[in-house]
Amino acid sequence: MRQAMRIHAIIVAAGAGLRAGGGVPKQYRAVAGQPLLRHAVKRLLGHPAITGVSVVINPECRALYDEAVAGLGLSEPIVGGATRQESVLAGLEALAADPPDIVLVHDAARAFVPDAVIDALVAAFDDDVDGACPALPQVDSLRRGEDGRFSGSVVRDSLWRVQTPQAFRTPAILAAHRAAASGATDEVAIALAAGLRVAITPGDERAFKVTEPADFAKAEAMTTYSSRAASGFDVHKFGPGDHVWLCGIKVPHDHGLIGHSDADAGLHALTDALLGTIAAGDIGDHFPPSDERWRGAASDQFLAHAATLVRERGGLIDHVDVTLICERPKVGPHRDAMRTRIAEILGLGIDRVSVKATTTEKLGFTGRQEGIAAQAMASVRLPEHSA
């Protein structure tokens, strides 16, 4: 295989995909906290042999698409057709002006294809072939049936379960698509009809196609998670005012808290804890005090931003815990409201939110009632799909 070869992947995501349930096309339903399409895109973008990825979509789903691939740096999506065959041709035509050497055509519903499957496809072009397709041998016994009864056997020795991505030399598959009759179910069928030579490469059970509702449970079960926990700490001193903001709740007090934003020490500590679980810096990196946009800002948006970053990584927030350290104001009367507000911001059940308070027995700056301190812990799970 020549190192200079350009390999581009087309992901077909224009179908309705409603058989899997969920009320939206299956490619936009979440698995391990992320849309199926996002998993598929990240898998192909992350393979070192692939130089570019484009996605074919139904334009009516543009908002879902934009949300699913946010931050991945893809070019404009390609408008698909009424059938898969039409959508693939649209994707190929979009590459025709500057065609790559090899094109991979992949179904968004096969979101967890291992790297080894792609490695084998690329290696197949060391031989004199026009294309390659991953497949698994048929191992179950096959029978014909009529009227609810078996009527005969089928020899399985030469039968294969075809998967994607399917890889082809771009000029060859583009010409074959342009000449193909309608009704083809995949690129192998079109290639064989055009007389192209297509190699069989090893498939993998993990590259299964999500089709039925139960397949989402199967995909979730394939996902392994690593648990992470991180802490946060924040301090604000008292100043003039008649209230303080603590854990998103306005608490009456004979002083205020001084800070660039609303000085909510509880939410600031919790924001840093969540950012720490994904090693994303601290609150000052994302909302610098030198930026006037955040002067007097409500801290709930800081916490919501940290939660969004966790979820963009496919993370699940398991539990958060905040301890407020002060002599006054009294936290107890407001604790349930604080827990409720944090749960709302993070989209969690209130049983996964803890707020506590303590004093320093009149020791230190909090004991002298010069300010308030807060510490927080957050625990999350991040997905680790096996390659």
Task: Give a structural overview.
This protein is of the alpha/beta class. 29% of the residues lie in helices and 29% in strands. The chain has two domains: 7-222, Spore Coat Polysaccharide Biosynthesis Protein SpsA, Chain A (Alpha-Beta Complex), CATH 3.90.550.10; 224-384, 60s Ribosomal Protein L30, Chain: A. The strands form five sheets. Strands 1, 4, 5, 6, 7, 10, 11 and 12 form an eight-stranded mixed beta sheet that branches. Strands 16-13-19-17-18 form a five-stranded mixed beta sheet. A two-stranded antiparallel sheet has the order 2-3.
Descriptive terms for the model:
alpha/beta; 387 residues; 60s Ribosomal Protein L30, Chain: A
Q: What is the overall number of helices?
A: 12
Average the pLDDT over all residues and give the rounded result: 92
Our Rg estimate from Cα atoms comes to 27 Å
The rough form would be described as: elongated
Strand residues, percent: 25-35%
CATH architectural grouping of the largest domain: Alpha-Beta Complex
Number of domains: 2
Alpha-beta classification:
alpha/beta
